[in-house]
Amino acid sequence: MTIVSQVKFQDIGVVVCEQVDVTLPALAADEVRIEPAFIGVCGSELHVLAGGHPFAKPPMVTGHEISAVVVEVGSGVTNARVGDHVVVDPIMACGKCRACLSGRFNLCEPPQVAGFRAPGLGRSSHVVPARNLHLAPKGLAMEILAFAEPVACAHHCVSRMPVDAREDVLVIGAGTIGLSIVQALRIMGAQKITVVEPEARKRELALQMGAHRVVAPGELAAEERFTGVIDVVAAQATLTEACTKVMAGGTVICMGVPSGPREIPLPSMQRFERDLLSSGMYVPSDFDVAIAWLADGSFDTSKLITDVFPIEQAADAYARAKQPESIKVLIKFKN
């Protein structure tokens, strides 16, 4: 038996760090055993903790943003070795459906994502498929590497937007993902970036991340239009604003996770060929780009990682993540 530490949502609103005795499972040929260094606290997990997620409900082990070390490999694994520093893609796809066979594992149905329908990664020992690993340089700090999952989300989102729509982009919302998207837009050549965000501190961070202008909600002029709009909130009001602020022939990306159905102004969308696209998580290549950006310093996390808590203080980490001024909270597994 081995004692494993894990971050668990014991009940709605209740986070615990618990020690459990487990028998570590033997590895299949295509599996690896990992030990996390850091996990990130995500807004989607806060929805689960509050009881608002459609299918993920406490009690459950949480965690899907992770940096880790490989400690054991299966007999058939060729893409990783013991001691490698890795990010784990949390999408536990079937590998057999039409989407998976085309490399779009994010579209596998029903989605099996660690910490939601699949077991969470927030435990001190975990077995995952080797295909879900993405190797990182050992010189890249593990707390920075833990930010790869939000960066992958941002890269995938911006990749969904046509290049010509990146000329003059409006980003609605400047939380962790919104600020990551601002950096991704900058790196990927957006000519002008405007951000709408209610929190003054986050507006300032958006400017530091590469936005050319920031405004509070309601401050955009009525006549302003943008070649592309990314809605990171997905509320009815923000989606309506996105669809009415995009130019004729422009593109709207819905990046936020809506809590329910939304209406869109379809007559003007249809008449003026305004495209509404969505962005759902990432594909493997997004992680490779994210790690490269983090490793070469193109993507800066220094102002985005606001707090680091030891695993024993996991409850405090989730409480901190709920505060409006928080950006990214990490939980540390190793000293």
From TrEMBL:
> Is the keyword Metal-binding assigned to this protein?
no
- In what residue span(s) does the Alcohol dehydrogenase-like C-terminal domain sit? 177-295
Origin species: Rhodopseudomonas palustris (strain BisB18)
| Record carries keyword Oxidoreductase | yes
Q: What is this protein called?
A: Alcohol dehydrogenase GroES-like
Q: Where is the signal peptide?
A: none
> Where is the Alcohol dehydrogenase-like N-terminal domain positioned along the sequence?
29-137
UniProt superkingdom: Bacteria
What's one Pfam family the UniProt record gives for this protein? ADH_N
Q: Which InterPro entries match?
A: ADH-like_C (IPR013149), ADH-like_N (IPR013154), GroES-like_sf (IPR011032), NAD(P)-bd_dom_sf (IPR036291), Zn_alcohol_dh (IPR050129)
Q: Which keywords does this Swiss-Prot/TrEMBL entry list?
A: Oxidoreductase
Query: Molecular function terms in GO for this entry?
Result: oxidoreductase activity
